[in-house]
Design goal:
Oligomer: single chain
Pfam families: AA_permease
Keywords: Amino-acid transport, Cell membrane, Membrane, Transmembrane, Transmembrane helix, Transport
Number of helices: 6
Subcellular location: Cell membrane
Number of strands: 0
Structural class: mainly alpha
Membrane topology: Multi-pass membrane protein
Family: Belongs to the amino acid-polyamine-organocation (APC) superfamily. Amino acid transporter (AAT) (TC 2.A.3.1) family.
């Protein structure tokens, strides 16, 4: 479980490099995005942890329940708790979208270099590598464990 958390926490860093190939001005945008990672970690990880621990003792935080949802349930505000669940599901879909983007671009790059099947190097009229997206989706569907 801990390795999954660690991998998730650092999983976005490689997207900066992968996105650099498609950036209009990578010399300016990539250093800016890289420098913003520190601020995002401070706000989203450290900040949310500080708020959480100021409202609930750390001994009550478990892996099977969202502590933020639990706080709102205890305050009697089920609307906000349900809205927070929707936010969490939206965030999970966003992570999946980033993973599909990352996977498709890596497969596309490998195919362009001749290290993957040529069919993965094709793009549609908008420049989208549809075949690599389909392969990523297929692997995701087959990899499901539950």
């Amino acid at each position: 479980m801990m390795m999954a958390i660690i991998m998730f926490s650092f999983g976005g860093l490689e997207l900066v490099g992968i996105t650099a190939a498609e950036a209009d001005n990578p010399e300016q945008s990539i250093p800016k995005a890289t420098n913003q990672v520190i601020y995002r970690i401070l706000i989203f990880y450290i900040g949310s942890l500080a708020v959480l621990l100021s409202l609930m003792p750390w001994t009550r935080v478990t892996a099977d329940t969202s502590p933020f949802v639990l706080i709102f349930h205890e305050l009697g505000d089920t609307f906000v708790a349900n809205a927070l669940n929707i936010v969490v599901l939206t965030a999970a879909l966003s992570v999946y979208n980033s993973c599909v983007y990352c996977n498709s671009r890596m497969l596309f790059g490998l195919a362009q270099q001749g290290n993957a099947p040529k069919m993965l190097a094709s793009v549609d009229k908008r420049g989208v590598p549809v075949n690599t997206i389909l392969v990523s989706a297929l692997v995701t569907a087959l990899w499901r464990t539950d």
